Amino acid sequence: MCSLSLKLNRLSSSLLSFTTAASRVNNTLITNQIPHSSLFCCSNRQLSSSTSSTFFKLDNTNNSNKKYYTTSSSSSSTPSFVDLQYKIMTSQTNTQRLLPVEKQADWRFNTHELPGIFRGIPDIFDGITVNDDTQYPNDVDTFEIHLKNSIEYWVENKRRGVWIKIPESKSEFIPIVVRQGFSFHHCQSDYIMLTKWLPQDKNRLPDYTSHFIGCGGLVINDKKEILLITEKQRPNKWKIPGGALDSGEDICTTAVREVWEETGVKTEFVSVLGFRQLHNYQFNRGDIYFVCALKPLSSDINLDPNEIAQCKWLPIEEFVKNLETFPLQRSISRLAYEYAFNGYKGLKASEVSNSLKNGNSFVYHGSDADFDDLIWVNPDKKTNGTH
Questions:
Q1: What is d(CA 87, CA 126) in angstroms, rounded to the nearest whole number?
Q2: How confident is the model at residue 384, as a pLDDT?
Q3: Cα–Cα distance between 89 and 18 in angstroms, integer?
Q4: In contact, 294 and 270? CB cutoff 8 Å
Q5: Boundaries of each Nudix hydrolase domain copy (predicted)?
Q6: pLDDT digits (tens, 9 = 90+) for 184-242
Q7: 8 Å CB contact between 303 and 229
Q8: Is residue 261 among the annotated active site residues?
Q9: 3-state SS string over the chain?
Q10: Is the pTM of the predicted complex or chain greater than 0.85?
């Protein structure tokens, strides 16, 4: 055993030397640019310019891509780097085969070159998401065989949570996935996502979306009048216009859009004056409703007859005195009064780059801090929408 370990250590050292000197293997060494979303090897940490190198990874100074070493195909009888690494991994026990989390370089995980194993996207929590349904076989029997092989492989390689996406067009696979111990996680109009927790400890996969998000637009003109509506379902209950946030939409954009759609009044976002959290709103999910101060850019009303019964500009004092509105709207009337007369400003929106996804996001705050230097992506793009 000691002799075998010594040989493996020497072989590992040789392989690591290969990545810098390229002198251990006769295959041609090439460098491939691989985007963040398409991985050649599997890392257990989120890849970034500061992540320590793995077998294949070199940091790229421009932070836009990562460079990976691989070997070109060759008819030479000399074993390739990949072949040698595979030999190391298969010569060890399951425990020995896995390198430490920060160094594990599972080259097989995201390639097409391992028949019968579903490829997926690894995450920083040692999980895997299988969402490319083009790799699924056409018949259910073969699909079940591949799924069983994949589960065995993931367990062997210490994967934890597995997410598998089944499109509506291949719904006949759903019973097979359930039989293999997967549970329903969430469903959309064109797919269902199922999950399986592989370790023996407590399932730590997160629940699906826990809240709905809504936004109301508090619009006050130069006459200290507030823009109010009544809905067709409740024609006597005055409220500020607003509605649900669309997928991928910012809070500040939602408020502006909803006011425009319901009243025809053009506005621009100013600040978030407050928000309301409600439990067990729909489908046992919560609701968070943001009250946004908007600056009017027009005053003419052109209400949506499909949803809105009435729309008008009303003096703020009258809105505050109206006892027939809902408690939420009464609280909003007091926010409106503080905003219009007592200098309350609320939380402004500052755009910053997003470290978790591409693009920018908004930080809502009540300070005068300047965040302009934190915009790294599309700095000239104006996302603080107006209508």
A1: 23
A2: 45
A3: 17
A4: yes
A5: 210-336
A6: 999 999 999 999 999 999 999 998 988 999 999 999 999 999 999 999 989 999 999 99
A7: yes
A8: yes
A9: CHHHHHHHHHHHHHHHHHHHHCCCCCCCEEEEEECCCCCCCECCCCCCCCCCCCCCEECCCCCCCEEEEEECCCCCCCCCHHHHHHHHHHHCCHHHHCCCCCCCCECCCCCCCCCCCCCCEECCCCCEEECCHHHCCCCHHHHHHHHHHHHHHHHHCCCCEEEEEEEHHHHHHHHHHHHCCCEEEEECCCEEEEEEECCCCCCCCCCCCCEEEEEEEEEECCCCEEEEEEECCEEEEEECCEEECCCCCCHHHHHHHHHHHHHCCCEEEEEEEEEEEEEEEECCEEEEEEEEEEEECCCCCCCCCCCEEEEEEEEHHHHHHCCCCCHHHHHHHHHHHHHHHCCCCCEEEEEEECCCCCCEEEEEECCCCCCHHHCCCCCCCCCCCEC
A10: no
pLDDT 10s digits, 228-284: 999 998 999 999 999 999 988 999 999 999 999 999 999 999 999 999 999 988 888
Asked if 160 contacts 198 with a C-beta cutoff of 8 angstroms, the reply is yes
User: Active site residue: 249, 261, 307, 317, which one?
Assistant: 261
pLDDT of residue 373: 84
Sheet of 66-71, strands arranged across: 29-34, 66-71, 57-58
Q: pLDDT below 50 — which residues of the chain? A: 1-112, 378-386
Residue 225: φ, ψ to 5°: -110, 145
Which residue from 105, 185, 172, 99 is spatially nearest to 139, judged by alpha carbons? 172
**Of 229, 138, 157, 147, which Cα lies nearest the Cα of 181?**
147
Task: Check the CA dihedral 47-53-59-65 and report its sign.
Answer: negative
Task: Please give the single-letter amino acid code of residue 273.
Answer: L
| Topology (CATH) of 211-344 | Nucleoside Triphosphate Pyrophosphohydrolase (3.90.79)
Half-sphere exposure of 15 (CA within 13 A, CB side): 24
Task: Please report, to the nearest 10 degrees, the dihedral formed by the alpha carbons of residues 36, 42, 43, 46 taken in order.
Answer: 30
- pLDDT the model gives residue 136: 96
Domain spans, the chain: 101-197, 211-344
